[in-house]
Amino acid sequence: MEVETITLTDGSGYAGAASRLLAPSTEAELASILAEASAALIPVTILGSRTGITGGSMPREGWAVSMEKFRRIDIGAGSAWCGAAVTLADLQAASAHTRQFYAPDPTEWTASVGGTINTNASGSRSFRYGSTRRHILALRVLMAGGSARTFRRGEAIDFPVPELPLPQTTKCTAGYPLKPGMDWIDLFCGSEGTLGVVVEAELKLLPKPESILAGVVFFPTLDHALDAVEAWRGVEGLRMIEFIDHNTLDLMRPKYPEIPAGALSGLMIESENPDEEAWVDRLERAGALIDASWFGETDRDRERFRVFRHAAPERVNETVISRGFLKLGSDFAVPIARSREMTRFYYDVLDRSWPGQYVVYGHIGDAHLHVNLMPAGPEENRLGYQIMEEFARHAVALGGTVSAEHGLGKRKSHFLSLQYTAREIEAMKDVKRRLDPHWLLGRGNLFPEPGH
Ligand SMILES: Cc1cc2nc3c(=O)[nH]c(=O)nc-3n(C[C@H](O)[C@H](O)[C@H](O)COP(=O)(O)OP(=O)(O)OC[C@H]3O[C@@H](n4cnc5c(N)ncnc54)[C@H](O)[C@@H]3O)c2cc1C
User: Fold this and answer.
1) pLDDT tens track for 253-294
2) Which of 86, 228, 390, 434 could cysteine-pair with 82, CB 3.0–4.6 Å?
3) In this structure, which CATH number among 3.30.530.20, 3.10.450.50, 3.40.50.10490, 3.40.462.40 belongs to the domain 213-329+334-397?
4) Strand 148-152, strand 294-296: pairing
5) Probe ligand 1: pick from 82, 119, 318, max atoms within 8 Å of CB?
């Protein structure tokens, strides 16, 4: 069962180390590991696919437990039971055989079911379908100490919690979204491995739409794209609006020379109501570079565009890590009505104060852009962290969140206190103490210091 002691890294380049790396193959083995750790007061960090970018799966101490052997997939009509290690790619492939699909799409398809539940992952299709939370029907969880529970949607927690204020954003993954009478699934979803270990989950599957129009639409200016987002937000059947700015296009040009020379921004769209005439009209009115844009209606076309969109974070991560730094990217979302204001704020600050390379891309349909800084040296890197904090404060001031989809992990746990008061964070810690009295699970995630 034991593999070896190793140093690990996550998708952001952040490193962790564990005194043991364990990979149980059954629930009983996992339960006995948790019972042993609990008796000896050894912290346990759970590993999914380690594509997370906030250090959540990186242990600071104690044992690392990889869920890699929990790979059962059982597809039914309208739902699938999946082991924690099932990847989104495997789930989508298995669902496609039954003409169904799993709606959450964090573009990183090697991510695991357990990891995406624990970060409440979202992504491109969340514009229509919301984040992972909405798609969980049941969870099988091992609690700290090893006891097993199965929670079905709607089963309320059996202890009192206060109501914490939630931002007016379409998604949020910053801390526990406490509310009296909330159910266990909402508590575990997004809890970043701090409250229990997800062994299996029943996930909702949707019928695959008959036809989907997909496109990567290029525009001659930034404002053309921002105007199009506002004009198209209400379009029926639209399930994705992803933004790519001019710097991102430049970063991708070596790999994609077909990006048109005159393009200064792009929107990637998918519509389940592919009324072509209406789209031509919309594109013309938006001033898009129609002839230079890319469109398609097949699964293959959509996969090609997904890979193109995914190349942006991949290229950014590789560049930053190769320069010896950790990924330095934002995950803030604001209320839809403040989207343009926040976007302008990003560019004003970056153009005024940031000497290095930066890119902006992401889920503009949800007012949730990722700003990524690519520092050339230590001084720019230091300044980058200051700028990120300025962005975090501004997002909160506009009614937004410090984390829309990545979670806070260890790298961003200091942001929690920008969004919540000390009393509200204490209420979250009370829940943590109740379910994990020795503060062993996911130690360092969300709360920088153990609070037992
Ligand atoms: C190129 C790139 C693009 C990305 N794009 C997106 C995006 O668009 N949207 C998005 O939401 N994310 C995105 N991510 C981030 C990442 O893919 C997600 O956070 C994903 O949910 C992590 O899944 P994982 O299996 O890799 O989990 P890990 O990174 O292994 O773990 C994440 C957290 O979950 C906990 N955990 C994992 N499994 C379990 C379990 N079974 N039980 C309890 N706790 C568990 C870990 O302890 C950790 O705290 C991207 C990452 C990369 C590298």
Assistant:
1) 999 999 999 999 999 999 998 788 999 999 999 999 999 999
2) 86
3) 3.40.462.40
4) unpaired
5) 119
d(C-alpha 85, C-alpha 87), whole Å: 6
Beta-bridge partners for 395: none
pLDDT of residue 6: 78
Domain 69-208 bears CATH identifier 3.30.460.10: no
Task: Give the tokens for residue 365.
Answer: 């349909």
Which ranges in the chain are annotated with CATH 3.30.465.10? 69-208
Residues forming CATH 3.40.462.40 domain(s) in the chain: 213-329+334-397
Give the tokens for residue 265.
Answer: 């921004």
In angstroms, rounded to a whole number, what is the distance separating the alpha carbons of residues 449 and 8?
21
* Residue 192 alpha carbon to ligand 1 centre in Å: 9
Closest CA to ligand 1's atom 46: 57
Ranges of residues in the chain with a pLDDT under 70 are 1-5, 452
